[in-house]
């Protein structure tokens, strides 16, 4: 059974980069969201057992998405992928329940390692 995955980023190029970095042997169904509100909608619709989340997006940013998921006790595995690597951002993301924080530009081997570490592959 494929794992429902959503890639949430306002940049189509970044979404495509994440999609290409996914391990080819990982059985997933990939959905995309271009802002935080769409990411929340995907979670609610059951399209995001795993959510790859950018922090800087319109409508709702990644921090707001994490806050929403944290408050609603959601079981979605969130891996943040962002260029905002300031220590404060990383600390806040971790406190809000993200499983991993990966920096942009995303490297496929780093993504694979993160997926192994959280037990997804």
TrEMBL record:
The modification 4-aspartylphosphate is found at residue 54. Gene3D superfamilies: 3.40.50.2300. Pfam families: Response_reg. It comes from the Bacteria. Keywords: Phosphoprotein. Residues 4-119 form the Response regulatory domain. InterPro entries: Bact_response_regulator, CheY-like_superfamily, Sig_transdc_resp-reg_receiver. This is Response regulator. It comes from Shewanella avicenniae.
